[in-house]
Amino acid sequence: MSNSIEPVLRPCHGPTEWPSFVRIWRSAVEATHTFLTPEDVEFYASRMEKDYLPAVELTVADVDGTPAGFSGIAGNSLEMLFVDDAHRGHGIGSALLGRALTEHPDLVLDVNEQNPQAVGFYERHGFVTVGRSATDGDGRPFPILHMARSAH
After folding, report:
1. 18 is in which domain, residue-wise?
2. Distance, CA of 128 to CA of 148 (rounded, Å)
3. DSSP labels for the chain?
4. CA-based radius of gyration for the chain
5. How many structural domains compose the chain?
6. Is 44 within the bounds of a domain?
7. C-alpha to C-alpha distance for 126 and 141, rounded to whole angstroms
8. CATH number of residue 38's parent domain
9. Is 62 within a domain?
10. CA–CA distance from 5 to each of 12, 93, 94, 106 (Å)?
11. pTM
């Protein structure tokens, strides 16, 4: 029996859904971004609805009618992909990434170097590191790997 859940992927219904995305984001980040302090988490959380979510086209992964994950794309760049910790490892992230790749075969993304689970996830989906930045987009000291699909 498979461990996968078949999520229903759909567009975001608008800003009324954003609080649920912040909850999902926090659950995912607290489970995987062990390099962040509680103050760092609050810094990024405070910017989710104001800065980050409005800047992307959001896709939602519903499980039993409830958002369990989401992704955000700007141009051909995957800017965010987060799955609620209770749903990690069940194929939701793969479904969201698959949809993004279908819509953007030239998809690129950035991932925290200090999040080896995410780096491994993207590598398993054919992404390779094509560059590195010592700081994140906010200039904070969290190295970022720039990834793209392998030409192979």
Report:
1. 8-149
2. 6
3. ------PEEEE---GGGHHHHHHHHHHHHHHH-TTS-HHHHHHHHHHIIIIIGGGSEEEEEEETTEEEEEEEEETTEEEEEEE-GGGTTSSHHHHHHHHHHHH-TT-EEEEETT-HHHHHHHHHTTEEEEEEESS-TTS-S--EEEEEE---
4. 15
5. 1
6. yes
7. 27
8. 3.40.630.30
9. yes
10. 20, 11, 11, 27
11. 0.93
pLDDT by residue for the chain (152 residues), tens only, comes to 346 778 999 999 999 999 999 999 999 999 999 999 999 999 999 999 999 999 999 999 999 999 999 999 999 999 999 999 999 999 999 999 999 999 999 999 999 999 999 999 999 999 999 999 999 988 999 999 999 997 65
- Does residue 3 form part of some domain? no
Residue 1 lies in a domain: no
Here the tokens at position 4 are: 């996968």
Q: Which amino acid is at 51?
A: D
Compute CA 103 distance to the chain's CA centroid, rounded to the nearest angstrom.
Answer: 16
